[in-house]
Protein: Pilus assembly protein
Amino acid sequence: MRMRHRQRGAVAVELALVMIPLLLIAFGITEFGRAMYQYNTLAKSARDAARYLTQKGPGEGSGTAKCLAVYGNRTCSGSPLAPGLTTDHIRVHDQISSPTTHQNQATGSGVINLVSVTVAGYQFVSLVPFVAPNMTFGDISVTMRQVL
Structure:
């Protein structure tokens, strides 16, 4: 009986000691999952914008491609695909804006023109910065062949 009296509350103390690291791990996994989801969203939006540009002529459609990359539509309406994403983060390169790297690229089957869309300088903002800090993603770039 005396031993039982001394053990009162021990389980609550043990739970409190174990719960802190478990919560930190759970929040960390959740935040890195959110970061991966946003990175994947940016990569897909850049791919969609580059695919759109492959069907346009040189120098055409860069504004619409930026809208596709940021908002997922051609009219720049609605909310951005990722929080804080703006058209300032999007760079479009084609044979007009970057002639030395994107015009008349030699391949085994002839010459092609390239289009590139890059998401640069996007910062992921963590909801729990003491567990997973804010981070700036590296440039996400997609290059495709332009159909003329």
